[in-house]
């Protein structure tokens, strides 16, 4: 009986792919997990492996065909006894089954990493080959550009083999390990058997006769560019559709200085200091933070305006009602809910601070998804309180507390950090008196909170001591004029100095 080979899950929001390359021909003998073909989506390349050993009887979807999820790609039948001897891998699988009493092996796969995230780095393995694991027990942790992703065991058994060691970069849907579910530990695999990290193909590989993706060939023909003008990033230097798009757009971009380094090169280190330094590779999260902050400086016309706010009214209101608030709502009344409410109130009057630039268009948002910057041991992340303008004080406090805890534990999902329209950053918790926050692109505004400090101020012609806080609004001057930025900050100040304005919508 033939076994069907179908299109696997392609990831969130991806519904179809193009058959890029078949690595087997009808009649070829295949082993379990042999790579049969490669599919190309608009984001990633997906490998399709043989679900069983046998002979590839038929290819239903030839190269260049667009297929949907679960579509039939081909069929595998039983290998003929008269056929030439099976490959070494087929033989080994047969011997392993004979010696292990048909041991059932379960694949541990890279889970969905979220929209726009196509790869991750294996940061830590918590189990070793040969160790017993329970279902849903954490096996390893993956690190993406934004969050850490835990990989649980799909079934109880023994971790038979780790296919991808720590430090390896893997794509969504890649195999990480094998679990034996018969309760017997498989023999530890030799180190050489571990799949190497998918690194850039060496120059020698690029010179081989490699078949480029059909979609890439079509794109090159339409753009009128030669194969030599495109650098392939696929397997063995194959040119993918996105490689062609990069090559086409490259001439239109402003020419960058040749071989410009990401940072100033280090000066030679004296021999006496060489042994007292430690070099640690930047985490993917830290690399992303560095890249995005630099992009914000290079792209936006960033400007900062400052003001100060007397926190007496907010502190008095908080002290008066904090016990009743916590008793009724089960959460402490902090300062962040006041600032979120004040900002959502001001954004209604100055909507361009809540907008973003898309090409030559300005996108105005009739909602407020408030990003709240949170410092974690691994770096700065910005979870988003969605529809903050429609939430009560208690709902805001609960959501911020929940997101902050998940951020510090590295449990945030990609969805919880996407779609923010404005951001609040509180450097005051670390003692900052004044700073200029950097925009969180593509947003056009970010409010910086700072330390509350008793200072002498003039009130009614008298010098009095009041708890004061400096506020800083950084904004994109391409879309927000100085008048709008100052008006926004003044409205925030007025709302905090007289919270009754929030109730009266003034």
Automatic annotation (TrEMBL):
Its EC number is 2.3.1.61. E2 component of the 2-oxoglutarate dehydrogenase (OGDH) complex which catalyzes the second step in the conversion of 2-oxoglutarate to succinyl-CoA and CO(2). Residues 190-222, 252-277 are annotated as: Disordered. SUPFAM superfamilies: CoA-dependent acyltransferases (SSF52777), Peripheral subunit-binding domain of 2-oxo acid dehydrogenase complex (SSF47005), Single hybrid motif (SSF51230). Its cofactor is (R)-lipoate. GO terms for cellular component: cytosol; oxoglutarate dehydrogenase complex. The keyword Protease does not apply. Pathway: Amino-acid degradation; L-lysine degradation via saccharopine pathway; glutaryl-CoA from L-lysine: step 6/6. Residues 2-77, 105-180 form the Lipoyl-binding domain. Forms a 24-polypeptide structural core with octahedral symmetry. Part of the 2-oxoglutarate dehydrogenase (OGDH) complex composed of E1 (2-oxoglutarate dehydrogenase), E2 (dihydrolipoamide succinyltransferase) and E3 (dihydrolipoamide dehydrogenase); the complex contains multiple copies of the three enzymatic components (E1, E2 and E3). This is Dihydrolipoyllysine-residue succinyltransferase component of 2-oxoglutarate dehydrogenase complex. One of its GO terms (biological process) is tricarboxylic acid cycle. Keywords: Acyltransferase, Lipoyl, Transferase, Tricarboxylic acid cycle. It catalyses: N(6)-[(R)-dihydrolipoyl]-L-lysyl-[protein] + succinyl-CoA = N(6)-[(R)-S(8)-succinyldihydrolipoyl]-L-lysyl-[protein] + CoA. CDD domains: lipoyl_domain. Residues 190-207, 252-262 have a biased composition (Low complexity). PANTHER family: DIHYDROLIPOYLLYSINE-RESIDUE SUCCINYLTRANSFERASE COMPONENT OF 2-OXOGLUTARATE DEHYDROGENASE COMPLEX, MITOCHONDRIAL, DIHYDROLIPOYLLYSINE-RESIDUE SUCCINYLTRANSFERASE COMPONENT OF 2-OXOGLUTARATE DEHYDROGENASE COMPLEX, MITOCHONDRIAL-RELATED. The keyword Transferase applies.
């Amino acid at each position: 009986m033939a076994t069907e080979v179908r299109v696997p899950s392609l990831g969130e929001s991806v519904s179809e792919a193009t058959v890029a390359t078949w690595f087997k021909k009808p009649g070829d003998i295949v082993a379990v997990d042999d790579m049969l073909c490669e599919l190309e989506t608009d984001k990633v390349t997906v490998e399709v492996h043989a679900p069983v050993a046998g002979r590839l009887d038929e290819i239903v979807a030839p190269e260049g065909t667009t297929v949907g999820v679960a579509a039939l790609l081909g069929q595998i039948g039983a290998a003929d006894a008269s056929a030439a001897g099976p490959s070494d891998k087929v033989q080994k699988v047969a011997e392993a089954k004979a010696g292990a009493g048909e041991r059932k092996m379960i694949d541990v796969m890279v889970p969905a990493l979220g929209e726009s995230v196509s790869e991750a780095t294996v940061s830590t393995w918590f189990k070793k080959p040969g160790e017993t694991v329970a279902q849903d027990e954490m096996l390893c942790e993956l690190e993406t550009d934004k969050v850490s992703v835990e990989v649980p065991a799909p079934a109880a058994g023994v971790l038979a083999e780790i296919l991808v060691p720590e430090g390896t970069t893997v794509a969504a849907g890649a195999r990480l390990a094998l679990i034996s579910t018969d309760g017997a530990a498989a023999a530890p695999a030799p180190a050489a058997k571990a799949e190497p990290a998918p690194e850039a193909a060496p120059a020698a590989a690029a010179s081989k006769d490699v078949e480029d993706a059909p979609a890439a060939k079509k794109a090159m023909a339409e753009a009128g560019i030669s194969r030599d003008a495109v650098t392939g990033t696929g397997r063995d230097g194959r040119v993918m559709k996105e490689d062609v798009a990069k090559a086409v757009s490259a001439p239109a971009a402003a020419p960058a200085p040749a071989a410009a380094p990401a940072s100033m090169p280090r000066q030679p280190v004296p021999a006496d200091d060489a042994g007292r330094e430690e070099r640690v590779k930047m985490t993917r999260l830290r690399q992303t933070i560095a890249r995005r902050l630099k992009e914000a400086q290079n792209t936006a016309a960033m400007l900062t305006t400052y003001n100060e706010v007397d926190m007496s009214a907010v502190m008095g209101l908080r002290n008066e009602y904090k016990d009743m608030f916590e008793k009724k709502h089960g959460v402490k009344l902090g300062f962040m809910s006041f600032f979120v409410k004040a900002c959502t109130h001001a954004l209604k009057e100055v909507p361009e601070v809540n907008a973003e630039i898309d090409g030559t268009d300005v996108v105005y948002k009739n909602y407020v998804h408030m990003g709240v910057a949170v410092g974690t041991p691994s770096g700065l992340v910005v979870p988003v309180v969605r529809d903050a303008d429609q939430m009560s004080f208690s709902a805001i406090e609960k959501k911020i507390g929940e997101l902050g805890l998940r951020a510090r534990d590295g449990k945030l999902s990609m969805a919880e950090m996407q779609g923010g329209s404005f951001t609040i950053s509180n450097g005051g918790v670390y003692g900052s008196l004044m700073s200029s926050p950097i925009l969180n692109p593509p947003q056009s505004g970010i409010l910086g909170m700072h330390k509350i400090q008793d200072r002498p101020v003039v009130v009614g012609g008298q010098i009095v001591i009041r708890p004061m806080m400096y506020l800083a609004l950084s904004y994109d001057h391409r879309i927000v004029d100085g008048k709008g930025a100052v008006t926004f900050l003044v409205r925030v100040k007025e709302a905090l100095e007289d919270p009754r304005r929030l109730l009266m919508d003034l």
